[in-house]
Amino acid sequence: FWVVPAVEVKIEVVIPEKERSKEEMSPNGKASPLIYKVNGTARHYHLEEHPIASNPYHNLKDMVEASVCHVKDLENGQMREVDLGCGKALLIKESGEFHAVGHKCPHYGAPLVKGVLSKGRVRCPWHGACFNISTGDIEDFPGLDSLPRFQVKIEKEKVYIRASKQALQTQRRTKMMAKCISLSNYNLSSTNVLIIGAGAAGLVCAETLRQEGFSDRIVMCTMDRHLPYDRPKLSKSMDSHPEQIALRPKEFFCTYDIEVLTEMQVAAVDIKSKIAVFKDGFKMEYNKLLIATGNTPKTLSCKGKEMENVFNIRTPEDASRVVKLATSKNVVIVGASFLGMEVAAYLAERAHSVSLVELEHVPFKKFFGERVGRAVMKMFENNRVKFYMQTEVSELREQEGKLKEVVLKSGKVLRADVCVVGVGAVPATGFLKQSGINIDSKGFIVVNKMMQTNIPGVFAAGDAVTFPLALRNNKKVNVPHWQMAHMHGRIAALNMLAHGTEISTVPYLWTAMFGKSIRYAGHGEGFDDVVIQGDLDELKFVAFYTKSDEVVAVASMNYDPIVSKVAEVLAAGRTIRKRDVE
């Protein structure tokens, strides 16, 4: 389906005072019906009109004010969660000034009081999102929303917070966004900005353009059936419905005039005439282009790989189908990748048996090192997951058209009702081969620090790119992480608007297995030693990855907020030496 912008739908947002005047400007008047030609058939869409709701935060009954502490209760650099009776706020004292913002990270609800405060921003202890303490604005990802900001006043040595009850309850604020002007004037086969791919990079690019006041047409297209969703949940929380993991509701796209073309695949890009050609022959002209196509999972190359019940998990439908078929049955997972291990952990309680086949002798060895890999492997074995290491699949056998057995090169035969393949991925850039856009030998799109390709007006972001990582002396790297895709999308949008902004974020990722999380920050590729503090057997540790004398990455389990602390140090451009952590 196509999501077509409606003229006025209101989403309630908590707006800082200075932005209220912008909010009250009406964007556009009536628009005529639109006709889209898809596969040669005309479809009619009417743009609905909705009355403008009055701003909910002018309602004085919605406001609450409370004395929360004495001025001397907080030292500089301290944070405290305070209760206002109908909700909590995070009170912060830095450089002698008090600030108050929402107390929960809008991403997954982490308590920010347990995070890291540094130079005017607070970093989430779980997944590393950063928020400005003066404005509440999100400055690093993951997540899309900012924190609500509350008024602080000092009277007779007491600290008072004044806040909207609704903001205290929602604990999030959607930044003010522009809308598209005079949508009815558009030629439907042309757009100002075309975004290929509707993951985190594509969505953050579209939202950033609107936040920066861009009021021209934005079209996103995706091969997926769904609007942008929280892809990491496909392997971490497998039976989620698409609506539960949607990053934004359908109304959001209507409100802010972000058009999404679902089940539409771009087959080629003509950079000279600035046209994207779709698989079904539909053509769309663009002015600026973002390529954020992500990657395509690798498949097995053995006999039987096309069989029913063999899955690469790409969509919410794949994930829920696997859970259904695996319940009380035998599951074989090929590849101890993040996806493979998360799926194994999720299915361990539900399936009759879970077997994991991997070429290396320890899972995560290249990423987390051998000792951490072994500790993780032991945790899995304690949860009934059986490993078959240093071997691969030679054949998949069927019975009546359905998977029955997985044969390993070692000769071992495993019973299998379902097989999940997690053996890595390749960038989804095949359609660009003849385009003139610079692609490296592995298929990654090469971009600079502003996410620009070698072609003016063409940007790329997310898992399909290599970009210069400031943290590693601008070495060109591929970082296929959820947080990084968000930041790429933001930087691309700012540079479409000629801001000249360069990327300098610290990579941050997490994996969740058996109710435990490993957090990781930095870029440890090529590390030559690991310094471990804590107890690996108890799964309470921090691992510092070093290259020569320098800490290049950190991982931890049950040791918050150490990874966020290290991320802040690295983000400030400071070097951590090996001797500092030994």
From TrEMBL:
Q: List, alphabetically, the Pfam families matched.
A: Pyr_redox_2 (PF07992), Reductase_C (PF14759), Rieske (PF00355)
Specify where it is mainly localized. Answer: mitochondrion
Where in or outside the cell? Mitochondrion
What does the entry give for GO biological process? execution phase of apoptosis
Coiled coil (residue ranges): none
The record's GO CC annotations read: mitochondrion
Q: Which UniProt keywords apply?
A: 2Fe-2S, Apoptosis, Electron transport, FAD, Flavoprotein, Iron, Iron-sulfur, Metal-binding, Mitochondrion, Oxidoreductase, Transport
Say if the entry is tagged with keyword Ion transport: no
Asked if Transferase is a keyword of the record, the answer is no
Domain Rieske, by residue range, is 66-161
Q: Which GO terms describe its molecular function?
A: 2 iron, 2 sulfur cluster binding; metal ion binding; oxidoreductase activity, acting on NAD(P)H
- What SUPFAM superfamilies has UniProt attached to this entry? FAD/NAD(P)-binding domain (SSF51905), FAD/NAD-linked reductases, dimerisation (C-terminal) domain (SSF55424), ISP domain (SSF50022)
Main function: Induces apoptosis through a caspase dependent pathway. Reduces mitochondrial membrane potential.
Q: What's the family? A: Belongs to the FAD-dependent oxidoreductase family.
Task: Report the protein name in the record.
Answer: Apoptosis-inducing factor 3
Organism field = Drymodes brunneopygia
